[in-house]
UniProtKB/TrEMBL annotation:
GO terms for cellular component: fungal-type vacuole. Residues 37-377 form the Peptidase A1 domain. It comes from the Eukaryota. GO terms for molecular function: aspartic-type endopeptidase activity. This is Aspartic peptidase domain-containing protein.
Length: 390
């Protein structure tokens, strides 16, 4: 059964207080460093510029403060710039604070700040955590821009995009993401060809054919939290070089949770069937993890693929990626070796889909409604096959 939840009361209050403003669509170029996908924001007055990793797996924005940039454990310790509230005429402490933990064990903590942001010619107010504690030791970004739902916001810091919607600054209640494969893992600090579009989407430019759309499910508390749906089946398909017929094997997932997370890179599937999944695409997982086989990039071809059957019962959709699309050089510090295509989660009922799959599609993340439209939403996530050249 489809469910609908309200936007947070804080956002609805913000909407009621917002003055008239022209709606806008922001196309923010994606900057990539060491595989981290980031966008640039000006923060404060005068603006201090920070590159934030956009993350659909968390809600609140955060960035390291000036002291943490100097003292917190990091490979660039003492050589980065953090947010300085004393240098801004518009920053105000809200009196709240937060500690944000991540699935990989990383943690940030600090007070909540209400501040002026600017991007793409638009200036607006939003709240974030000014982290004076962080153990993100190798994160290339100054912090995170959370793009999940406000029900899991920390320290009163509503997601930036939800704040933009509440302030009537967005043209439509959705955002779109195009990852440019041509950009690789590094754009050398400059904007790449990839784009995060806020307040709209660009499927007419990037998508060949129709979008594949799935409905989202709520979390355990009945609210939308992250961009999650239902995983029914994983299908491995392969054929030998001298055959035109594919051999397919289905792996039932029994309605497992599947979370689509731009802050992660891996494709992590429910535990218990990984060895057989690798066999279905012609690989040996045990040999790989024991160091007996290093998968070479020339093994990643269109002769094999994986298909995820996702969505509500009765309206399931198939997402397919081929070996060629999954090729990611650099495994075992070798450019001719590619990272294994997927890994295992610690749970039989949970899977995590990161950018390794997402970058092969144009994605549209649709809230379905603005806070001012009555407060109800029935969000959807859409996937589009990229046009040739993209």
């Amino acid at each position: 059964m489809k469910t609908a939840t309200r936007f947070s009361s804080a956002l609805i209050a913000t909407t009621a207080l917002a003055g008239a403003a022209s709606a806008k669509v922001l196309d923010l170029p994606i900057i990539i460093k060491d595989g981290y996908n980031m966008v640039d924001f000006g923060v404060g007055e005068p603006a201090q510029h920070f590159q934030l990793l956009f993350d659909t797996g968390s809600a609140s924005a955060w960035m390291v403060d000036a002291e943490c940039a100097e003292t917190c454990t990091h490979i660039d310790k003492g050589h980065r710039t953090g947010y300085n509230i004393s240098a801004s005429s518009t920053g105000k402490l809200t009196g709240q604070d937060a500690s944000i933990g991540y699935i990989d064990g990383n943690l940030v903590a600090g007070p909540t700040v209400k501040e002026q942001f600017s991007a793409g010619g638009l200036t607006f107010e939003a709240s974030f955590i000014a982290a004076n504690e962080s153990n993100w030791s190798s994160l290339a970004a100054a912090g995170f821009m959370g793009l999940s739902f406000g029900s899991i916001a920390d320290g009163g810091a509503a997601p930036i995009f939800e704040s933009l919607m509440a302030e009537k600054l967005m043209d439509e209640p959705r955002f779109g993401i195009y990852y440019s494969r041509a950009d690789g893992d590094n754009t050398n600090g400059a904007p790449g060809k990839g784009v995060l579009t806020l307040g709209g989407s660009r499927e007419d430019k990037y998508v060949d054919g129709d979008l594949i759309t799935i409905d989202l499910t709520t979390g355990g508390n009945g609210d939308y939290d992250v961009w999650r749906s239902v995983l029914h089946t994983v299908t491995g398909s392969s054929k030998s070089s001298n055959s035109t017929k594919s051999k397919k094997q289905d792996f039932p997932m029994d309605g497992a949770n599947i979370v689509f997370d731009t802050g992660a890179s891996a494709i992590a599937l429910p535990s218990g069937q990984l060895e057989e999944m690798y066999e279905s695409i012609g690989m040996n997982w045990t040999a790989i993890i024991n160091g007996e086989h290093i998968p070479l990039c020339n093994e990643f071809t269109d002769d094999w693929s994986i298909t995820l059957q996702v969505g509500f019962y009765g309206s399931e959709k198939n997402l397919t990626v081929t070996g060629t699309q999954m090729a990611l050089p650099g495994f075992a510090n070798r450019e001719d070796a590619c990272w294994p295509p997927f890994e295992e989660t610690d749970s039989t009922g949970f899977s995590l889909i990161g950018t390794r799959l997402l970058k092969n599609f144009y994605t549209v993340w649709d809230y379905s409604a603005f806070p001012a439209d009555g407060g109800f939403m029935s969000p959807k996530l859409s996937f589009g096959k990229l046009k040739a050249g993209y």
